[in-house]
Amino acid sequence: QYKFRDLTIEEIKNVNKTYPNFEFSVNTYTFKDGSQKDLLNFSGTIPVKYGNSYNIPVCLWIMDSHPFAPPICFLKPTANMGISVGKHVDARGRIYLPYLQSWSHPQSTVIGLIKEMIAKFEEELPLYSLSSADAARQSELLAYIAKITEGETDRKAKGKIGGDKDGCFNKITVIGAGDLGMACVLAITAKGTADKVVLLDLSEGAAKGGTMDLEIFSLPNVEISKDFSASANSKVVVLTVNSLGNAQTYRDVIQSNVELFRGIIPAISHYSQNSVLLVASHPVEIMTYVSWKLSAFPKSRVIGVGSNLDTERFRYILTNLLKAEVLGKDAWIVGEQGEEKVPSWISRNSATQQTVAAHNSREKVANRALEVLKGKGQRSWSFGLSVADLTDSILKDKRKVHSVSTLAKGCCNINSEVFLSLPCILGTHGVIEMMKLEEDPLVLEKLQSSAASIHDLLQQLKL
């Protein structure tokens, strides 16, 4: 039963008027957790111009809390169509768009969603024609695709299709057995996202401290190893190591970390060529850049934990302590980890221009939240929970927005190759899309200042 029946009926009328070729029906949708609901769905084709004109078949499932929850959208390829995996479509045909991510009633509508779908597909066509031989092979997969467009397949089916040779299809390797590495292993295990977690202990000598305790009180699906080959076929590799040398200056400490990574990243890249590298080592902006350079991975698959923890805390403080739920929804901490971080907001095209009074009021509330945030501290277990949050979004292809360290060149008038925390949509292959920030001169100035100081430091290092 639809909670907002009248609003949903009005939506159906609008869609039928604009896209009369769409068919409406009620079918059973199966969610990832195995639960089922009878949901309304729209099926039809949308017109897309990509050189020629194409009719792209889609199916939109309308949630029972519509219009306050976004639809779930899929392509419906025929036997002679192949799916072009891209930033808006995954291999299963599920459609991901910024419009869905920022869905907000009453601004967001199914008509608006379809219009953005058309616009994005005109930039990157989601389907292509198969040859007769390919079409024959494609027909063997249609049963699976049909299941997906009618609902999510169960976990066991996914395992058979996506599993690697050792039967483990969601594998995470955590490098470093210090407090942070241990916290990451425990948090990831508690989250239940990964089928296997490998803790790669690079310390000298026999297992000590936490790793010894892990061996004594063994956790299911957790393996401890000193061999890089144990990390093979990981979907995500989390780097928590930091050099404990006798460096005298800050630059020397970082250079020592660079040398440490020089012996790690190539090996990890060799054993897990398609992984996402998630850097938690400090300073995260520098070490994420180093990981990117040493791995030769695309920028989308090398990210740092950045300001994800600060952002989640900041939004929680705004929403739950200061009761500023509207501000908390789009609020982000961006820039550098530490004292140079800055609050910002995602730009909304549909939002009206803020008045000076409203802007000043928002700044006052944000400053109060930052003061509360300062007293929270950042312990290993806090970062561990943040890392588990990020790996969950990546492995489950959630297309959720996180403030993570990503290559900032080309954003906010930054021309150098530096990594800064910016709100990004994360999926199976790392960063899918960077969200646009409001054009606040103070925020832009701080981001550019951070970029300049990081770039200067990078120039002093031997990479």
UniProtKB/TrEMBL annotation:
CDD domains linked to this entry: LDH_1 (cd05293), UEV_TSG101-like (cd11685)
Span of domain UEV: 1-131
GO-annotated molecular function: L-lactate dehydrogenase (NAD+) activity
Pfam families: Ldh_1_C, Ldh_1_N, UEV
InterPro entries, sorted: L-lactate/malate_DH, Lactate/malate_DH_C, Lactate/malate_DH_N, Lactate_DH/Glyco_Ohase_4_C, NAD(P)-bd_dom_sf, UBQ-conjugating_enzyme/RWD, UEV_N
Gene Ontology biological process terms in this record: lactate metabolic process; protein transport
Purpose of the protein: Interconverts simultaneously and stereospecifically pyruvate and lactate with concomitant interconversion of NADH and NAD(+).
Protein name: UEVLD enzyme
Species annotation: Nothoprocta pentlandii
